[in-house]
Structure formats: C-alpha cells, structure tokens
Write a structure and sequence with these properties.
2 copies of one chain form a homodimer. Chain A is α/β, with parallel strands linked by helices. Chain A has 11 helices and 18 strands. In chain A, strands 1, 2, 11, 12, 13, 14, 15, 16, 17 and 18 form a 10-stranded mixed sheet that branches. Chain A has an 8-stranded parallel sheet with strand order 3-10-9-8-7-6-5-4, with helices on one face.
C-alpha cells in the first residue's frame, strides 16, 4: 500500500502479527468495540421502529459497510457520487447520496450509470438542481428527498420552499419520496435536545407541505450520532456515521464513553520536555478539526486526563497530568482524533486489532472520493 | 486514479483538455504561477548566499521536486522516512528528514536502506534518540543536525542541551553537521520579525555550543515561507515549503499577493440562499486548518472580498459581499485553502493548468506517507 511503509507489505495474513511490529503512526480499530457499536445502534433503531442507513463517509470501508448491513441497516448513506460508485462496485447497491447533487457535465453520465446499477436516492434543495438532475437522468428511475434546513444553516430549503422543490423534481421526472435534514447543531454542547426538537418539527412540517401539494412523501430522514440516543420522534430513518468508531468530540459531548471508542492513532513518543511529550502523528493523521468547545486537539486513550495542546502536521504535543508518569521515548500512545471521519479519510488503510493482535487490514476504499 | 472520478481516466494527454470538463472538486495548480514562485525563491536564496532545501511535505510531488532542484535547490527536506523513501525511489537522493526520527523497530531497517540509497541527513533532539539511531544504523554514514527550539515550543532542545545531544550523536557513530530549527511562531501575525530574530540568535548560540564542545558543526538550517523575505542572517540553509503554492494563510499574513497563489480547489455552487452560496468542496478537500487569526476557512480566488464562513466535510459556505453578483447554481469558484500542505495531502493528484487548459496531472506521490 502506497505510503503505509513496507512493514505492512511484509505481513503474511496466515501468521498472527503483533501490532507493536508496525511502524507508527497508523489507525488501529478495535474489532470488538466496533462490532458492539454497530450492533447497539442497529438494536436502538430497530427498537425505535425506524430504518438505519449509516453514513459511510465516516469509514469509507467495504468491510465495515457489510458489517452494518449484516446488523440490519437498510442501505448506506454517502456524501458524493464518487463514494456511491465505489460501494456500488462492491455490490452494495441501496445508496442515498445525502447531498444537493449538481448533475452538470460528466457527473450526469456517472449518475445514469449509478441509476442503472443501484437503488439510488439523491438529495435536492433547489428547483434548479432538480431540473438539471431530471435532464441528466433522462427519465431513469431515481428517487429524491428534498433537503430542509432545520437549524444547522448549511444546505437545505426553508419549509416555505419544500413544495416548490418537490413539484419541480416531479415535473423533471424524478420520484419524490420525502424529506431529509441534518441536525448539525447537535454538535453545539448543551443543545442536543433543541436540535432533536428542531429536526422533528422541521421534518413533520416539510412532510405536511408535500402532502398538501400531493407530492410523493413518506420518508422523514434525519439524525446524527449525538442525537441518536434521544429518541426518534418524527423520523422514519436515521443516518448516523461516527457511531461506528466514536471520537474525541463524542467523548466530550458525552454521547459515548471511553470503552465505546473503537479507533485511535497508534503513535510513538519522539520528543519530551518536562511534563510534555510529542508523538509522531499530527494533523496529517488525525485531521485538524478543533472546534472551540473541545478541550484539545484530540484525546489520549491511554491517559484520559492528558490534554492535546498543539497539533502540527507530524507533531502532536501532549500535556501529561501531574501524578501520571511521563511516557518515555519510544513509548506508544493511542490518540483519539477529534473528528474520526477526517482521520479515516487521511489513511490508506485501517489496522483491525483484537487486543495486541492484528486481525486484518481494511482499505479505506472510498478515501478521497470527493467528486 | 482511485477516488478521482472517471473523468480523469478518460483523458488522452495528446488532446488539450479544458478544465471545465473535469468534475469538481479538484486541486488546480497554475503552472506559470508555480514556476515563478519556484524561481523567485531560488533567486532570493542564491542572492543571499544560502542553500535552498525546499520542504517537500507541501507538495509530495516528484515533478514539482524536480522543478525545485532544476531551479537550484541543493536537495529536499522531508518530514518522514516514508516521504524520503518515495523521493529516493524516484532518484532524488539528497534528503534531510527534518524531524526527531525515532529509529526503533522496522524503521531502523528502513533507515539503513535509505542510508544506502541516499545522501541522508536526519534530525535529532535527545540523547536517547541519538543512541537508538546510532544503534539502528550500525556505523553507516549518516549526518545529523541537532534540532533546537527557538521559540515555537514544539520539538527541539534548549541551547543548554545542544552540546550533550551532539556529543551523544557522535558517540553513537553519527556525523554531526550542525543545527536546525523551525521558527513556527512566524505564523503569529505581527511577530515575523521577532521569529526571525529568535531563529538567528538560537542557531548562532547553538552553533557556538557545538564549537566549544568540538562537535561537528557548520550547517545552520532554518526558515519558513513567512520569514523568507526578511533576510538570512545566521542561516546557511533555508527550508520553506508553502512558497511553491502559497495559500490563504500566506495571503492574510501578507507574505504573498493574489497573483502569487498557485493552487486552489475548483468547486461548483450547489446550494444558495440570499448572499450565501455553498460549494462542493469542504474540509475533505481543503483541510480543516482554521487558526484564530484568519478571516475564514479559506479565500476565494475569484472574489477576494468573499468570506468562507463555514466548512464541513463536503460543504464550504461562502458569504458574497454586497455589490458583488451572487454566483449562480453550477458556477465554478476557486477556493484557496488556509493551509496548502493539508489540502495537497488529501488529494490523489494535482491538475496542472495554464489558463483554462489542463497541461498535466501529477500524482501526489507521497500522499499519506506518514510513517
């Protein structure tokens, strides 16, 4: 694998390998924690009577997607046509591109191919995009959901515009199935409950708008990892991504505990001064996400009270708390990224571990599939 | 190329291609601006009587490295053993790994191979690392520079410890050639001059420490893109990286102008509301670097007064200033990342353009080479 170092290539899968034999940094995924996270979310959605359509932008992995589907997911959510192409090529063909897809140029041809290969669902948030999409697809069977803004203020239309976009989509030959939103303001600490309420009110109002206009409806798709534990009122489908791995943001939001963190970068202490150490992973491994409400640039799985006080491309500076022995040169520390989706998208592969043993290595198959 | 969309694969290099035929997002590099940036820095260092050893972590490209060497660079700087391996395999063999390399485990074997293949220079900032390195290299000819902290407070030793580390390196069979530092506090607006002064004072003091202890000396290596224009007192070698492309941080620090920005993400407007548009590149294309002193999550090459007010993985939210027509659905905008090293490390290739024509596509050969 390009860029992963030759240690990976030398491995024979038949011989159990100790993770200590791999050069750092690498992203290690605890298989037992991962399996438990996947199963728990599937049970939660099943008990709540809603469909689970995990967002694969988090993991970009065929193997992990198959685990989610095996646990009961009805299909996958993806962010780009490029991601959809990669999962479709692996035989995973129930796909929702939860994005206001612009079908101009070459992307129109790619969407027609995908519509041939998949049960394809797309997002739309404007009459303009609906018309371009309808024109590109030339009558092929594609479902769309109208995206609404429920308070995150990114893409998505206001309730007043839902019916017009839905009608434009139907007039363009697309099959409208309902509405979707992303309650991204759930990442604002202390506002998770508000985001859940905004999401429910928005989706139900949008659904009524489609009903009044006699546009296709029925799917109310929302959700995020932080809101998943707060009930599913107003939803028929949940699209969480991060829950499979969790990350430092989820730890600090309180939506997961330390035993539910499945992914961390294994790093080596390369420099020390006083109570500070520097490890050999930085923003090119962990990502640079650092919202103003977190306590640092990630968390250290081995030392929960440590603080990541600085990140540069290949240096993570960690403050070790008083009373904790300062790690020695060459020691390994496992750093949990703030935003796991960003970290995974920087890696060519995930090292799957059980305890100290390397069980498998999974390619990040859709890494960089941004088009 | 995996993840880049099939539009790239369909290209025949013999036929000039218009960049409008490529699906967005992609990283476009203006070849004329790039050539001019590379030439200007080479002239500046030559006139200042110092060596130029560009940091290849910025571009990770064999083609671009060759342009830098052709313009007069004495060799390359890299950040990791993995990057060094990739450039060495391409025949670029004068390499300085400007990092406190920890030579434990498999990395020791990889360093021996590199030392066979290259004129290899390494960083060291502790007696422990010097001993492990010397032991791993088993007497092979490798040069080291002692890293000092000149005020950025990342890795690097204080002046008081320089001689001890240098002596330990020599005792371990390594050839000490001098000292290096990174004046990273030059990225603190208004403190560039201070960083340059700290760097000079630190390197000269460290050099004297080596001289007094009769340890090998002579190389004083420093520098960064923000400090390159402020003179080279106290330096024998400069290691700038970003200058080849420049980025939004350099624009806002005032170290480059708009006509010196060589790289931007070409994006498409996919959603609009009022004076805001959303384009189809986010932090998975641009990186998430957003220091507190910049005006946004990047800058827009086509609309200098626009502001990037939010970045998520596949959405960049842009405020269009009063009086400027709001771009239409499907329009293309070129977004300059805050930190170009992060953006390049997310891409599989760079699209090399002159005007609207695609002249070439260069693999980001050392992308993800973090070990």
């Amino acid at each position: 694998v390009r860029g992963s170092g030759q240690a990976f290539e030398a491995t024979d899968k038949a011989i159990p390998m100790h993770s200590a034999s791999l050069d750092t940094p690498f992203l290690a995924v605890d298989l037992d924690v991962l399996s438990s996270n996947i199963e728990s979310m599937a049970v939660l959605c099943s008990a709540g009577g809603i469909s689970l359509r995990p967002h694969a932008k988090t993991h970009k992995s065929i193997e992990l997607a198959r685990m989610q589907l095996h646990a009961g997911a009805t299909g996958l959510t993806v962010a780009t046509v490029g991601e959809a192409e990669i999962f479709a090529a692996a035989g995973i063909t129930d796909l929702f591109i939860a994005y206001p897809v612009w079908a101009g140029g070459e992307r129109g041809r790619r969407l027609r191919q995908l519509a041939d290969d998949c049960n394809l669902r797309l997002g739309v948030d404007s009459t303009e995009a609906a018309e371009v999409l309808g024109s590109a697809l030339r009558g092929q069977a594609v479902e769309v959901l109208v995206e609404i803004d429920c308070g995150h203020h990114r893409s998505g239309v206001s309730i007043a515009d839902v019916a017009a976009v839905g009608r434009a989509a139907e007039a363009s030959g697309l099959t409208v199935r309902g509405v979707f939103t992303f309650p991204g303001h759930s990442y604002n600490p202390g506002h998770r409950g508000e985001a859940v309420s905004d999401e429910r009110i928005g989706l139900e109002a949008a659904d009524r708008e489609l009903a009044v206009s006699q546009v296709g409806r029925g799917v109310l798709s929302g959700g995020s990892t932080p809101t998943a534990g707060l009930g599913f009122d107003g939803l028929t489908e949940l699209r969480p991504g991060v829950y499979a791995f969790n990350d430092a943001q989820q730890l600090e939001l309180g939506t997961c505990g330390w035993t539910e963190v499945a992914l961390a970068a294994t790093t080596t202490v390369v420099s020390r001064r006083g109570h500070r150490v520097i490890v050999d992973a930085g923003s090119k491994v962990l990502g640079a996400d650092w919202p103003n409400w977190v306590t640092g640039g990630g968390r250290v799985l081995d030392i929960p009270d440590a603080r990541v006080v600085a990140l540069s491309e290949h240096h993570t500076t960690v403050d070790i708390p008083d009373g904790t022995p300062v790690p020695k040169y060459g020691d390994r520390l496992r750093v949990v990224p703030n935003h796991v989706c960003a970290a995974v998208n920087l890696a060519d592969e995930l090292v799957i571990v059980q305890g100290e043993l390397v069980k498998d290595r999974w390619p990040v198959a859709a890494r960089g599939a941004n088009t």
